Known about the structure:
It is built from 20 helices and no strands. The protein is an all-alpha fold. The longest helix is centred in the first third of the chain and has 21 residues, at 2-22. The radius of gyration is 24 Å and the shape is globular.
Amino acid sequence: xxxxxxxxxxxxxxxTLLFTAMLMIAGTRSASADMVxxxxxxxxxxIPDAQFAELGSAHAIFEVREAIxxxxxxxxxxxxxxxxxxxxxxxxxxxxxxxxxxxxxxGVEKSDETAAKYLQANVDAGHGPSLIALAEVQEKIQPxxxxxxxxxxxxxxxxxxxxxxxxxxxxxxxxxxxxxxxxFANYEKAAQADSPLGHYHxxxxxxxxxxxxxxxxxxxxxxxxxxMQGVPYAQVQMARRYYEGKGxxxxxxxxxxxxxxxxxxxxxxxxxxxxxxxEAGDVISQNLDLAGRWYSNAAKRGDxxxxxxxxxxxxxxxxxQQDLTRAYVLLYASAKSLPMAAESLKVLEPKLSKSQKExxxxxxxxxxxxxxx
Length: 373
């Protein structure tokens, strides 16, 4: 019975996290140099307070807010009647959240078509954030319409539209051929609106010659603008530039500072780099304990590089007690993404005793079972 309750709890947590994620309109990409999250004006809050002031009576505002709070707790069945009632009354907030529930299949049968209908109603009522949300839903069912709506958002001055178009043209998505020049033009448009991610993507273009001639000075300037506005990927780039002396004078201390800021925003790349600096002791005094902590922070977030370097510390007993079992488990996890981890795994496996290998296999099986829940 205890196991059953635990599964139910995990399920509730997952659905609640999914609902929270669905309320964030921004599209996402990976954290590599050419794939980072896109942004949206409504990324942090589904229904800004200012919009509630336009929704009608105080009673209506309270009921919609209460329904949204119930959704955040995973109580979708309790919230749905209220959301549907106020959506029929053209309540923007209720309509928006109801659309996100249908988009994510939360408490209702998943339906992008139904989500699109609700969002279209909001767009017709002049609700700007719903235009980007509608286009994102349409990417799967009506790619041409999605592109058209991103262009409409761009024309209205929403940098999210420009960023989305830049991504589409850079990677050749939604039936479009890759067009680096159009990608550059759209990223530049977003940067002109002082979009933090616009500055970041523009910097990438200047750095890699995407749709324009490479320009180290302009790349550094744009990375700096994005970094100062809190984009962790740009902060990591500034750290690399200071550390390598790329585009500016070497300054290891400044590099360390940017890495610290990026790590505070959850950048696993920054965490690994901080771990390397503490392990090497080339910028700050060597501290193997802190190196292990930074690698561990990245590893816990599923970063394969963090898993790899943490495994090496355990395998060599460096800064910690040697633990070949834990090292094997970490290398096994990171070997799926890193060839160097796969090679290290082959070297380590013969060194494990029978009991250590059995324990490692058990830990791996348990971890994979948890991921499957």
